[in-house]
Amino acid sequence: MAIILPDLPYAYDALEPYIDAETMHLHHDKHHQTYVNNANAALEKHPEIGEDLEALLADVESIPADIRQALINNGGGHLNHALFWELMTPEKTAPSAELAAAIDATFGSFEDFQAAFTAAATTRFGSGWAWLVVNKEGKLEVTSTANQDTPISGGKKPILGLDVWEHAYYVKYRNVRPDYIKAFFSVINWNKVDELYAAAK
Ligand SMILES: [Fe+2]
Fold it and tell me: What is the C-alpha separation between 131 and 139, in angstroms, rounded?
C-alpha cells in the first residue's frame, strides 16, 4: 500500500479561464505528485504507524520525530491538494440554504465572508493556504496556515481551502495574488463545501 496521486475530477482545462490548463498540469502532475512521493518515502521508514494521514496529522506528536516534519510538509501537502481539486468545478454551484444561513450568521453576509476569506488569502505571507473551517465549537471560522500545515492539526475541520503558494497562480496571474483569489470564487464547488460542512458540524 502506498498513497496514490488522485486523478483530477475534471479535465485539466475545465477551469479555464479562471485557472489555466498549464497551471493545472504543473500543480497536479508535478507539485502534488512530489508531495505524494515524499510522504510515501517518509511513511516507508515507519510502517508501524500506518498511512492514515488525517489521523496522524490530527495528532502530530504521535508521529515519530525523525519523519514528523516530513509528514507535516508532504502528508499535509497531499491532503490539502487532494481536497483542493475537489473544491473546484466548472459547474455553477451555490451554497445550500443551511450553509448560506450559517455564513450570514457568522460573517454578516456572503460578501463579508468573501472579504474575510480574501483578506486571509491575501495577507498569508509567503506560502500557505486560506481556509473556511468548522472549529472545535462547531462554528464557521476563516483562518490561514503556513506552508502545507493543515487545519486538522489545530483541531479544525477544513470545508473550503485555497492554495496561495505561488505555484498555484504564477503562470497566469504572475505576482497578482488578489486576481487569482477573485477568480477562485468563480470555480468553487459549493456542493463539495456543503458535503464537508454537513459532515463536520
Ligand atoms: Fe499547491
Answer: 13
> How many DSSP H helices and E strands does the chain contain?
10, 3
Q: What is the pTM of this model?
A: 0.97
- What percent of the chain has pLDDT above 90? 99
Q: Which residues contact 98 (CB under 8 A, 6 or more apart)?
A: 194, 197, 198
What is the distance between the alpha carbons of residues 132 and 154, in angstroms, rounded to a whole number? 13
Ion ligand 1: residues, CB within 5 A, are 163, 165, 168
Distance 166 CA to ligand 1 centre (A): 8
Please list, in sequence order, all residues whose beta carbon lies within 8 angstroms of the beta carbon of residue 49, skipping any fewer than 6 positions away.
43, 56, 62, 63, 64
Q: Residue 167 Cα, ligand 1 centroid: separation in angstroms?
A: 6
